Amino acid sequence: MALRKLIFRVYALNSKPNSVKVLNTHMSAFSVLSPNTDLRVKHDRHNLCFSINLDGHQDSAVLRYKFTSKKEVDLLSTYVPESFRGKGVAALLSKAAMDFLVEENLKAHISCCYIKKYVEETTLLGYKDLIIKLQPK
Question: Helices then strands (H, E): number in the chain?
Answer without folding.
Answer: 3, 5
